[in-house]
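[job 4471] stage=fold_predict status=RUNNING
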Amino acid sequence: MEVVPTGAKGQKFRVGDDVLAIQQAKFSLTGDTTINLQVPPLEIRETDWRSWYQRVTVEDIWGNRLPRTGSGSERSGDDCYISGWFGRPSGWFNAPARRVIVEDWVVLEYKVRFTFKDVPLP
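[job 4471] inference complete, writing structure tokens
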């Protein structure tokens, strides 16, 4: 797991074998946080994009994870970017974002044998 301070525009860091770069880390007065990351070139498969979204979280100054309010992606040639928008937990005042956390995952793929069967409903 890599912890990156917000406000670290242009900072590169390693997650597993991949190198990512922060393009933008912005906290607004309304309590919203925007994170834009350059990620390694991805396959066209949607699962590749989703895995990066799920690995990025933002914490406030007390270590509370901020809820994700949206995400997006952009590709320009081999350059790939993801964006995440994070709000503040309901009932909280505008605590500033403190850290961007990017988790390192090990993905294991394997086949599982199964059979579809008709199961009577109760």
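[job 4471] summary: Residues 46-55 form the longest helix (10 residues).
[job 4471] exit 0
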